[in-house]
């Protein structure tokens, strides 16, 4: 008998600060509609120096882990393009912070915004062979393009934590997927830079081309069509990009089904619109937003388009499970997003420039106002110092 494998629990964390896109537009001399409608963003998370991808991942994972679950975790697969060390994996730091067993495999995965999807697929394959085990999959990033750059409006940050297990509560992953890789220079971040380089229009075109390619190949493999899907979720570096992807395939659906898919997309982009770009976590925040704001029923098929610049794309699918709402803390997530504090453009710029320096000097961060359970206290002897409240 084939074991059902998929996403059992999902958590999300972003810091308690955000920048309103209307304020940014006014400061940059732009029409707010350019950001709110043309890009499709309302707010973006602002990441204080006391949070990095490790602490945000820990804060997301803490929402879904219990002492019992911790003993069952066999692997931590951490997708990020915002790693803190060129050698030591973020997954190792995370496993230590979460006090997981030393008998845990911990690996960091990197391919732009695709890393968490690689982790999810590797995790599912592992659990199919080891159905008693659970795998913690992370997608955590800080999207930085630089102040007063064209990409500034598509910044953001946060972490999504997913528990992959047999007989999952939220989503059963279907075995078939389609993937496509090409050496494309649409977005890259050389080792000497903290901000990304991007050809925005070209990257959008590559994204759409990759979606068309993997969707066609998925249909060829499975013989499924758009009629077999209740919703599609997309990697959303900004919400308008996913909307363009959906519009590529909507004409193949009936008018009634087009309305259903459009409504599902609106639900899936709601939280991304208020957080901004998560890179590796973007697709999975979109899925979580669909779970929270959509109207789903058990057995419905959801399509996922994952894209990582450089470039790699994948389309896969999963089936909603009857008790999916028990796999995440809806009220807690609503409070997390609702209780954030708006910062001025001046404060945002100050925080942007307060990240740990690259010279390796000892540094003590101001942690007195930190509210998150896990945080970065500073650096000593060229080692990051993590703390738990």
Question: What is the number of E strands?
Answer: 17
Mean pLDDT: 96
Please, what is the CATH homologous superfamily of the largest domain?
Answer: Thiolase/Chalcone synthase
CATH topology descriptor of the largest domain: Peroxisomal Thiolase, Chain A, domain 1
General shape: globular
N- and C-termini, Cα separation? 45 Å
Could you explain the architecture of this structure?
35% of the residues lie in helices and 26% in strands. It is of the alpha+beta class and 389 residues long. The chain folds into two domains: 5-170 and 328-388, 3-Layer(aba) Sandwich (Peroxisomal Thiolase, Chain A, domain 1), CATH 3.40.47.10; 172-324, Peroxisomal Thiolase, Chain A, domain 1 (3-Layer(aba) Sandwich). The N and C termini lie far apart (45 Å). The mean pLDDT is 96. (3S)-3-hydroxy-3-methylglutaryl-CoA binds at residues 31, 145, 244, 277. One of its GO terms (biological process) is acetyl-CoA metabolic process. GO terms for molecular function: hydroxymethylglutaryl-CoA synthase activity. Residues 177-253, 268-352 form the Hydroxymethylglutaryl-coenzyme A synthase C-terminal domain.
What's the short story on this structure?
The chain contains 12 helices and 17 strands.
Can you lay out the helices and strands and say which pair or pack?
Layout: E1 5-13, E2 17-20, H1 21-27, H2 32-39, E3 43-45, H3 53-61, H4 67-72, E4 73-79, H5 90-97, E5 105-109, H6 115-129, E6 134-143, E7 156-166, E8 171-181, E9 187-188, E10 197-198, H7 200-222, E11 231-234, H8 239-249, H9 255-275, H10 282-293, E12 301-308, E13 312-320, H11 330-338, E14 341-342, H12 345-352, E15 363-364, E16 374-380, E17 383-388
Parallel strand pairs: 2-14, 4-5, 4-6, 11-12
Antiparallel strand pairs: 1-7, 1-8, 2-3, 6-7, 8-13, 9-10, 12-13, 15-16, 16-17
Helix pairs in contact: 1-2, 3-5, 7-8, 8-9, 9-10
């Amino acid at each position: 008998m084939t074991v059902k494998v998929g996403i059992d629990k999902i958590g999300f964390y972003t810091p308690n600060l955000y920048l309103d896109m209307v304020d940014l537009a006014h400061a940059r001399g732009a029409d707010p509609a350019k950001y709110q409608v043309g890009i499709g963003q309302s707010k973006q998370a602002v990441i204080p120096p006391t949070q990095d991808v490790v602490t945000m991942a820990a804060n997301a994972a803490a929402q879904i882990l219990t002492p019992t679950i911790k003993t069952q975790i066999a692997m931590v697969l951490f997708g990020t393009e915002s790693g803190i060390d060129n050698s030591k994996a973020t997954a190792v730091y995370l496993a230590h912070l979460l006090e997981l067993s030393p008998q845990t495999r911990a690996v960091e995965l990197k391919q732009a915004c695709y890393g968490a999807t690689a982790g999810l697929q590797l995790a599912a394959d592992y659990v199919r062979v080891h159905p008693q085990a659970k795998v913690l999959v992370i997608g955590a990033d800080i999207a930085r393009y630089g102040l007063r750059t064209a990409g500034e409006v598509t910044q953001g940050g946060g972490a999504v934590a997913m528990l992959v297990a047999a007989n999952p509560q939220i989503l059963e992953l279907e075995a078939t997927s389609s993937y496509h890789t090409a050496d494309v220079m649409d977005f890259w971040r050389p080792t000497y830079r903290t901000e990304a380089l991007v050809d925005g229009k070209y990257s959008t075109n590559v994204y759409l081309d990759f979606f068309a390619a993997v969707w066609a190949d998925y249909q060829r493999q499975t013989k499924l069509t758009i009629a077999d899907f209740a919703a599609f979720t997309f990697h959303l570096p900004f919400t308008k990009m996913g909307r363009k992807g959906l519009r590529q395939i909507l004409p193949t659906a009936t008018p009634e089904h087009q309305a259903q898919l459009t409504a599902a997309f609106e639900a899936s982009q709601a939280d991304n619109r208020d957080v901004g770009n998560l890179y590796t976590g973007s697709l999975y925040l979109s899925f979580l937003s669909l779970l929270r704001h959509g109207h789903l029923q058990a057995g419905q098929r959801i399509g996922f388009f994952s894209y990582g610049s450089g470039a790699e794309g994948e389309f896969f699918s999963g089936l909603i499970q009857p008790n999916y709402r028990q796999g995440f803390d809806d009220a807690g997530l609503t409070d997390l997003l609702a209780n954030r504090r708006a910062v001025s453009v001046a404060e945002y710029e100050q925080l942007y420039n307060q990240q740990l320096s690259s010279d390796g000097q000892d540094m003590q961060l101001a942690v007195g106002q930190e509210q998150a359970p896990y945080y970065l206290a500073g650096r000593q002897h060229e080692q990051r110092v993590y703390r738990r409240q």
